[in-house]
Protein 1
Amino acid sequence: MIVGPEMVQQTTDKVKHIRARLKVTQDRQKSYADKRCRPLEFEAGEHVFLRVTLTTGVGRALKARKLTPKFIGPYQITERIGK
């Protein structure tokens, strides 16, 4: 039976090991997601849909997700702002 400082040391070592493994896994998942991600470029005159996140007056997201709209639009881009 381990008591005192040895138990604390083993526990902190295990926590460090778990955190390191989680970091490796998160980095791997991020690299997979980043490979699929592409920058979006829109030109004036194109039509786009906007993703909607509906909120209540309190600021929480609505619970009934089945019937809520996911996108609104189409909206036409009139001019480019920026570069």
Note: The chain has one helix and two strands.
Protein 2
Amino acid sequence: MTSEECPVPLGSISSAGPGQNEEYSSAQADDIIEEMGPGDDVSIGSDLSTLVVPFPELAPVVFFCLKQTTCPRNCLVNTWFERISIMVILLNCVTLGMYQPCENIDCTSDRCQILQAFDAFIYIFFALEMVVKMVALGIFGRRCYLGDTWNRLDFFIVMAGMVEYSLDLQNINLSAIRTVRVLRPLKAINRVPSMRILVNLLLDTLPMLGNVLLLCFFVFFIFGIIGVQLWAGLLRNRCYPEENFTVPSGMTLPAPYYRPEEDDERPFICSLASDNGIMSCTDVPARREGGRICCLDKEDALHRQALGLCINWNQYYTRCHTGSTNPHKGAINFDNIVYAWIVIFQVITLEGWVEIMYYVMDAHSFYNFIYFILLIIVSTFY
């Protein structure tokens, strides 16, 4: 159902609250005549005082029968209605901050049950608030409840809550629906006029950022192509034993390739013979066991127990070869343009970019630092 002419959204009502007007201009009278319902007869010669409505911001009649003085329409323009709504939103922010789902998954503690009771109360209030606004403003139309963007957000939050509670009744746990609770504090934007104006201004500037995003895309694309062309597969370089290497019977290598004992998340990346990287397999340090440096060869394996020493297996990792594992569980590499973009994004955030630069310098060339310096200057500082 719709009104003949829907009112302006509630957010356009001044913070001081609407009041009764004693005088109307002819233009205002014409607007009121247009907004009257089909059952309201107005003669040309009638007194304008008979056309005066208590709250000019709202349509005189909605749903073809509800006038402005009809409950709950008159409740909407009450200043306490907005104040209570803001207090409930603040209460919802507090309850969301106190909610600890990881500590009590089944929600058996008194704390969790109290928070659930508050959450149910808050949802019921938001649902009733939505119904009141729909009755007061009308539902469909350009200037009705669903004609306002922020009201549509409120409607989506309430509908998502309804789906969440319906799934809970059927013992269906869908955590993705629960994340909609995070949007509830956004309802405060529609309650504070100054905040709403600021957010609308920020949203209006988004189209102006199109050229900036286009420039950012070109930077990512150009630097990504350079990275793929120069360093595709190089961060998988590891030090392996020679192909004809044999291990004495009853013994095995500690690992198929050299892995630093102190930190497995920071691999030893070597440089191939065709490249000019900083690190080579000759730089692999001696193996340590129990805080002692191992110094025996594999030929001395029979005497190691008698001497109380250990074999330095690291000395046999002498062949730099491209393997199958990239640093940080495969997340850091330039094997294709998508992974290159991920690395570029991490570099421009200045989070761990030095370590990535050292990986590339170890595998390819010392002068690769120029790439990262230029990327930071172009992307981060400008």
Note: Residues 110-137 form the longest helix (28 residues).
Protein 3
Amino acid sequence: MRSAPSDLLLAAVIDQAEALQASLRGKRQLNRLYESYIPDRTASPAASLLGGGRTAPTLPGFPDPGHPLNRAFPRGGATGMRIQPGREAEFNELSSDRSAVSARALAFGDAVLALLVEHRAQGASPESGRLRGAGRWVGREQQLVPDRAKWPAKLNAYQGATLAGLGWLVLACTALPLTFGQRAHLISHYTLLFLAAGLIACTGTALIYRHGPKLITAPGPRALVPGIAAAVFAFTVWQGQGPVAGYYFAGPYDRYDREFADGCLAASPYRHDAVRSMVDDGVLTVTPVQGGTTLRLGPAEDGSTHPLRPLDRATRAVLDEYGC
């Protein structure tokens, strides 16, 4: 703004904007001028406030004694709070800036109004009662940033159905880590699984609380649309998570069918309905009913994502024979 052409009214607006920035800085920085301190036991309390005593040690990584963490968790037996010695003048200036925010906001509005009257209203002032209404000229706050939608005092049937659909979606997503953990045989890590499920539930609940009123504001049956979409998605997640988890964390028999019996061995004596198979000590043995070489494949683990591999030369020869 300082680079704009010279204009006394514009310069006044800039000055008032900078004054408001100073008030904002005062609000943000004033508390940082306090510090925790260790009083001098041999001196009076007043002497400690005037510079006696010692500044409390700061936390590692936070060298500023006015940092909120250093003030919230004082070290070294600090029991008092005071303005940092030598910064009293800065404290008084920030305090004055902070307390002047109301007057400066009105002055900024007046300066903006004067600028707009000069450049947009050909110097004709608005009617009495609107001299301090710069917000109507400048901000249009309610149009640009409308108030957040409020929860209705009582839900109608459509709104209740929509919330039920959203809740079902949160429940379906909450079950995802538990379903995948069970299929991957990670139940021994139940703490992490339940933490993940709890995090999803809390996040989903917070999102519904934050955006729910906006989703159910449509009149009449149209308020059902978000609920129907959420219910369809929830049904898909609920029904699909089991098969998807089972596909990625399949047992050794399912992996044998997927990798061999339904593919390269489909027309061989090693097809699904012509073999006897068993798992022993991480090894899947597949024996043709009509006789032949026994296949030894591994790793045969429940919930594994590793493909089955031949464990001996005879198995490798059979797989090569059928192009596996």
Note: The chain has a mean pLDDT of 83.
